Amino acid sequence: MAAIVGKSGSGKSTLLNLIGAIDRATTGEVTVAGRSIQHASERALAAWRGTTVGIVFQFFQLLPTLTVVENVMLPMDFLAKRPAKTRRPRGLELLDRVGLADQANKLPGTLSGGQQQRVAIARALANDPQVITADEPTGNLDSETAGAVLELFRALAAEGRTVVVATHERDISRLATRIVSLSDGRIVGGPGA
User: Fold this and answer.
1) In 3D, which of 189, 162, 122 has the Cα closest to residue 20?
2) What are the residue ranges of helices labelled H in 125-182?
């Protein structure tokens, strides 16, 4: 589990977007999970992203007209890696893992912020990615809910996934095995400093 720390505007979200192949670097090389992604086509990146990286956005990005389980199933539907009949059971299994199986048929807007964040984490796990990125995942949560979310990330890392969390909160970094400090878009502490 790696924590990217720094003040607002230091480049944390940009770095996560590079790791998740949402943005492209203008110079240099981006290698994620052993693969150089810098020169891949958009189509190849979309397929790679769908199987390799699970992204947890700061403001959840759940679709308000889909139920909670349909939001979790969405990456599976896009990738079509799993047979259609197995997607809902997989979605329910992931919701159970984050403690929300009983909320599966509700719309996201009826859930608390912490619950929506856990749905976003379940969605990020839908295609069993090697890498999970999370942008300020506890920034809008109370301390108890934030602790539960961080424990979930720690459990995912213990299973062998790479979890990269961007935060301006230094206390989150105590859970990380690696800390990278950014300032003005540059690494100022940690590996590569």
Assistant:
1) 162
2) 143-158
Angle between helical axes of 68-79 and 113-124 (0-180°, round to 10): 20
User: CA angle at residue 149 from 97 to 179, to 5 degrees?
Assistant: 125
The string of pLDDT tens digits covering residues 144-158 is 878 888 888 889 999
For the full predicted model, state whether its pTM sits above 0.90.
no
Q: CA 44: distance to chain centroid? A: 20
Non-local CB neighbours of 102 within 8 Å, separated by 6+ positions: none
- Find out whether 4 and 180 touch, Cβ atoms under 8 Å: yes
pLDDT of residue 173: 64
Answer for the pair 161, 132: CB distance below 8 angstroms, yes or no.
Answer: yes
32 has pLDDT over 90: no
Measured in degrees and rounded to the nearest 5, phi and psi for residue 124 equal -65, -25
Assess contact for 5 and 179: CB atoms under 8 A.
yes
| Per-residue pLDDT band at 171 (split at 50, 70, 90) | low
Please name the residues in contact with 17: beta carbons below 8 A apart, sequence gap of 6 or more: 23
Residues paired with residue 186 on neighbouring β-strands, in sequence order: 183
What are the residues facing 32 on neighbouring strands? Answer: 35
